[in-house]
Amino acid sequence: MLPVGYNKDKKMKKTYRLVILVGIVIVSAFVFLLVGCKKREAPSAPSSASASVRELTICVTWSRVEDADSYEIYDGDGYYLNETYGTSYTDYSPREGYNDYLIYARNQYGMSSSYAYATCYYEGNGGGNGGSGNSAPSAPTGLSSSVSGSQIKVTWNRVSNATKYNVYWSPDGIDYSCYWQTSDTYIFDSQPYENNYYKVIAENNYGVSDFSSYTYCHYSSGGGGGGDDSAPSAPTGVSAEVSGSRVCVTWNSVSNASYYKVYRASSSSGSYSVIASSTSNTYYYDASPNTNNYYKVTAVNSSGTESEKSDYAYCYYSSGGGGGGGGGTTVPDAPTGVNAENYGNAMLPDIRISWNSVSNATSYKVYRSTSANGSYSQIGSSTTNTFLSDSNPRQGYNYYKVKAFNNAGGSSYSSYAVYNYDPGSQLSPCPVHYTSHTATSYQITLRWTNPTTYGCGTPTTAYLRVRNPDSGVYADLQTLSGSATSASFSYGMWADSEGYVYCGIITENSAGTSGGLPLVYNWKTNTWYGGNGKQYTEMMEMEELIFSHINQ
Description:
This protein has three helices and 40 strands. It is mainly beta. The radius of gyration is 32 Å and the shape is elongated.
């Protein structure tokens, strides 16, 4: 007999609820395991990679991997080169011949099992691989950019003897990174930021061009975007001078201009007509000048919005020779007192070129070369100042010369000033990266590379340091050259009672010391710990600080 008040239906309902609850828990756990397992996977390798010569460096780029946090780059021999969060790497010390690169993707669960491969032939003088023609190509012209759906399309004019193009991107128009390489005259940026600046260089087997002028494009994830709709500022510093049978018109660049229009009239207040409707350079050669030539320039952004006209520049041209414009009747003297000094630092250089004022000069132009007697290229102009800043010097020696100008023409070059931009000696080295470490029954061998990434100095000296097991104090067991990449020592007397040997490499130069993490080897278990930023056990964590600050 059932107890009084017993409700059979109520009991069955409770049973059903319990069964359903258990089922939900089991299914949720199964789903969690599936999702968790999927998330706990190392990323796949980049699907493609390419490498190309850029002056004295090699630029390596690869495709983005969705679940990757960073990328590790190794050379063809398997030696570690760098780790980066972006999708490009610049090799500042390529070797002559073929340079091979292996790019792995990494996240918190490990490194990809395979890699993307790129190779590039380096001639040691800025040469590239592949191509046609017998000279390096000229810089691309006609750069423009515009929003295309959720992408930005960047286009430029084809360069006759170029075989490929390298496209550089910047969020601020100052620091550019190499991101794309193509044989076409366009690219689609599928991951644009809000502000996007682009430059392009052309390449063939004889070398690479200078950078093109930049193009800017504003992108809004909410739709719209494109070039900045606000009108650019009118160009400043417009000047004109006779150059052989032509008149050269120059002006200062405008930050959000995609291209410029050049206008000409026969009088200052006359009717100005467009003689050049699309040029991304900041100069134009008028091949059919009149006797009296007045020039004005406008800037146009990527939306087609045109600025006000600049102030005019005047140039008198005679088919029999001579010419000039503005004021003054004789060519000015060459500037004197040219000096170059870094007002910035190793990571953010600001090379200030200054000179004495020339009495009858109305403007100046500054030129740069990599050798005292080499070919000088114009890097900027100043209408009133007697100084100019070079924020993008070449690594190594930079030679600067200045010319003074007025309506009668330009002076001869000044004497040169030189500045050696060597960030490697002005920054302390970064901690070494251990590539491999081996141990026999009596000897340990350490192998490493010295990072050459942005912000890392060049070491002049390296020290092999080993911890005394009795005192716990590190000793410099060997002093090595800064370029050393391996060291061996007998570890018997350096092992503590538990079998642990603490050792590592510290580098330094005149700017400071690298610091770093020690490696720990246990000869009893044949086990390695630490190095390259890896965590120790809790009892070893303090050792990182001791080893990093051993010089202090």
